[in-house]
Amino acid sequence: MRSKTPPDLIIGLMSGTSVDAIDAALVEIGSPIDVSSVRILAHHRHPWPGKLRQEILSVMAPAPCSADRIALLDMRVAREFASAAENLLQNSGYRARQITAIGSHGQTIAHVPPLGRRIGSTLQIGDVSVIAALTGIATVGDFRPADMAFGGQGAPLVPAVDALLFADPERTRCVHNIGGISNLTWLPAKSRRRQLPPMAFDTGPGNCLMDSLAQRLFQIPCDLGGRIASTGRIDEPLLARLMQNRYFQKQPPKSTGREMFGAALADQLLARADRPSSIDLLATATEFTARTIADAYRKLLPTVPDEIIFCGGGVENKFLMARISHHLNMFARPELRTMESFGITNAAREAMCFAVLAAMTLRGMAGNLPSCTGASQAAILGVISDPRRRNGSRG
Prior knowledge:
Radius of gyration: 20 Å
Structural class: alpha/beta
Helix content: 25-40%
CATH superfamily of the domain at 8-155 and 346-385: ATPase, nucleotide binding domain
Largest sheet: 7 strands, mixed
CATH architecture of the domain at 8-155 and 346-385: 2-Layer Sandwich
Distance between the termini: 34 Å
Order of helices and strands: EEEHHEEHEHHEEEHHHHHEHEHHE
Shape: globular
Strand content: 15-25%
């Protein structure tokens, strides 16, 4: 029997590694948290101002950057996140006093997973105290460091939400997000959960390499629908070299970022004397993404899932999705689904997840899955800044 406790109204804020826009979602979250108790009430896509977007991209690791520049961007990014939340409220007709909290992912500018004895580190700018002060709404953020404190990768965090919402009693599922980086959550059927825990990891490049090449070669934000790449030819020798990246030999849990598969790699490819034509290079990068995704299903999972639920911006790239389907069908035929089949708008999904993570933090629930991040223990994630308390709070 469900609790009669009124549901929380939480705004989730998310900006990914592509820095396309801030997605803001107003989410109703009941108790217990499952797919039937989570409902997206409104969604707003807040484009980054062009100049600010370029400044964010210019400081992303491995680019050298001064501390004062990062400090200034931290404030400016927080103000933009606050504006996204306020615009969402204006468009939806809700008032700040009706909102339980904001859950903000922030904007990642560096993510360095632990390696051997090296301590992992991560940095998401967009200070939660600034967001809370400007909106007047309690804000939860800085989700990743607590997991890394226990030796985890600090990513992926969304699997904890995926497990609550999408685990099925009898069918094994994967939730596969193709954002700037591609990542999946493998969810065994609940009937098998005691034998096999969920697992999740970044498979490698998502959109970031393709987008970086499209911007440099064709002066466009992205190859819309994969129309350009679909007319090119795949450079197999170059693809073979790309596939030799050591990341693909690592076993989960593992995570990566734009530092490895973004602008720096695009520049390296463009600098090669033997690089293919512009169209063929974009086609090869698209194939690289597709093959690394399919290889993850073939080599790194305990079993191929019965269903794959695809989400993220990469779903809009029809050529990419066709290539993924082609490679998957060479060794398995899982049912391919979308977020919309569960009543969840694809564009709002990640923002929704950080609203749910905020709810988990506020309710004292662990927000990481050690089997997915590699942490030594589960942890309540994030810090809370609440301007409605007399002295506020952080931590």
